[in-house]
């Protein structure tokens, strides 16, 4: 990890080490990938205001998100199949996040189960919920998250049907992984690291295996999952979850002001302005372009989190300037995990926190609360 200076270095290393079908599962987006690209492009277009002679010697990136003290406003987003970027990936990523003083979100579609991650990590983590058709299973899953002392429940709203990702079809992605000739050839060109991922004990959906009625056959889980995403979901379901979950509730996948207002009214403690990292509605606007209006509309009622395209500390700074309390990172930490396991995630968080710290200094900020719209280069020009 010594020679790694930025997240792109981690990406290139992960590309060399992780089996192609899993690397591309993480790296790519849905359909034409317009929204995936827009997430990055629109962030990079936001120019920052350089300030001088403001005494920025003593700085801190510490902040509080949903009542939790964090070393920086950079949180790990929920990502499915994380244990296929590296064996036991969820356990390792959670440990790296906690050791760095920040928070980790476990996906419903994780490889390691809630119980396995909780057993390996004494501090509470966040749990992300997909609301599936089988509400008994969802009720049980919420109870498992409560028993594991998860400190927040993040309900994902933008995946009631799955957006197609061409690469996953072309690569023959399956869970657990089934080896086709093309995949075997790919893995033969990779370091032993790639084989280890496939030989790990946990190779399927850890939260589902053994918990879904009549589904002992691991091979049939993929079909079960595909048939379980629920297009009938409505705000009533969110009210039902609000009643079930006494702790902090976050709604993820909000891009529209009307939706944001309803989420706040139902009593969500936080929302994530997100388009699922450009993996769902291709053609949707970038999440950074949606952030300021949503933050203006409901930022005083509920905490605004943000994700989509965040690869640098400068990106985190941009999101905070436009009204986010914290930024979630998906691919950035997955690249770290694929590149170097726990050490790779630690490096990712360290690199990004330092980039944020230096950006704060060069823009004249010493605390996270100093970061507001006045740090943007075009501040005042539009008013
Ligand atoms: C995701 N995302 C996601 N979101 C969610 O709520 N549940 C999930 O299981 C997953 N799975 C998932 C897998 C992979 C490989 C990726 C890249 C993303 C979306 C994720 O939480 C987040 O919204 C995006 O990753 C943010 O964009 P960036 O940071 O990846 O650009």
UniProtKB/TrEMBL annotation:
Which residues act catalytically here? 276 (proton acceptor)
- Provide the leader sequence positions: none
Tell me which EC number(s) this protein carries. Answer: 1.1.2.3
Which family, according to the similarity comment?
Answer: Belongs to the FMN-dependent alpha-hydroxy acid dehydrogenase family.
Do the record's keywords include Translocase?
Answer: no
Species, as recorded: Variibacter gotjawalensis
Reply yes or no: does the keyword Nuclease apply.
no
Record key words, sorted:
Flavoprotein, FMN, Oxidoreductase
Pfam families recorded:
FMN_dh
Question: SUPFAM superfamilies of this UniProt entry?
Answer: FMN-linked oxidoreductases
Name the chain's protein: L-lactate dehydrogenase [cytochrome]
Enzyme class name: oxidoreductase
An example Gene Ontology CC term for this record = plasma membrane
Regions crossing the membrane:
none
Q: Give the top-rank taxon of the lineage listed in the UniProt record for this protein.
A: Bacteria
One of its GO biological process terms is: aerobic respiration
Molecular-function GO terms, alphabetical: FMN binding; L-lactate dehydrogenase (cytochrome) activity; L-lactate dehydrogenase (NAD+) activity
PANTHER family, A to Z: 2-HYDROXYACID OXIDASE 1, S -2-HYDROXY-ACID OXIDASE-RELATED
Task: Provide the residue positions that the database annotates as binding FMN.
Answer: 78-80, 107, 128, 130, 156, 252, 274, 307-311, 330-331
FMN hydroxy acid dehydrogenase domain location? 1-381
Binding positions for glyoxylate?
25, 165, 276, 279
UniProt cofactor(s): FMN
């Amino acid at each position: 990890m010594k020679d790694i200076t930025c997240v792109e270095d981690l990406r290139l290393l992960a590309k060399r080490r992780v089996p192609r079908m899993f690397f591309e599962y993480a790296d790519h987006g849905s359909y034409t990938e317009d929204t995936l690209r827009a997430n990055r492009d629109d962030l990079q277009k936001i120019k920052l205001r350089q300030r001088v002679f403001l005494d920025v010697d003593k700085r801190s990136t510490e902040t509080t998100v949903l009542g939790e003290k964090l070393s920086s406003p950079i949180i790990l987003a929920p990502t499915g199949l994380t244990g296929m970027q590296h064996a036991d990936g969820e356990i390792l990523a959670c440990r790296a996040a906690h050791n760095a003083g920040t928070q980790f979100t476990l996906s419903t579609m994780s490889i390691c189960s809630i119980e396995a991650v909780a057993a390996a990590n004494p501090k509470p983590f966040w749990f992300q919920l997909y609301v599936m058709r089988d509400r008994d299973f969802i009720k049980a899953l919420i109870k498992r998250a409560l028993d594991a002392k998860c400190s927040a429940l993040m309900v994902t709203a933008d995946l009631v049907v799955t957006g197609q990702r061409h690469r996953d079809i072309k690569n023959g992605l399956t869970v657990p992984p089934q080896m086709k000739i093309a995949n075997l050839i790919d893995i033969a060109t990779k370091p032993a690291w790639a084989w280890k991922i496939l030989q790990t004990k946990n190779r399927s959906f850890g939260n589902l295996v053994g918990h879904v009625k009549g589904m002992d056959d691991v091979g049939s889980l993929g079909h079960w999952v595909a048939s379980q995403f629920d297009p009938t979901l409505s705000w009533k379901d969110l009210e039902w979850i609000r009643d079930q979950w006494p702790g902090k509730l976050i709604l993820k996948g909000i891009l529209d002001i009307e939706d944001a207002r309803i989420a706040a009214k139902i009593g969500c403690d936080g929302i994530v302005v997100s388009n699922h990292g450009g993996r769902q509605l291709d053609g949707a606007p970038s999440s950074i372009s949606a952030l300021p209006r949503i933050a203006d509309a409901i930022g005083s009622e509920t905490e605004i989190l943000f994700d989509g395209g965040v690869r640098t500390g400068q990106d985190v700074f941009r999101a905070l300037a436009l009204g986010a309390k914290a930024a979630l990172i998906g691919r950035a930490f997955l690249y770290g995990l694929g590149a170097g396991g726990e050490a790779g995630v630690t490096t990712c968080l360290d690199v990004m926190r330092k980039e944020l710290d230096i950006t704060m200094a060069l823009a004249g900020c010493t605390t996270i609360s100093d970061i507001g719209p006045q740090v943007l280069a075009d501040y005042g020009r539009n008013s």
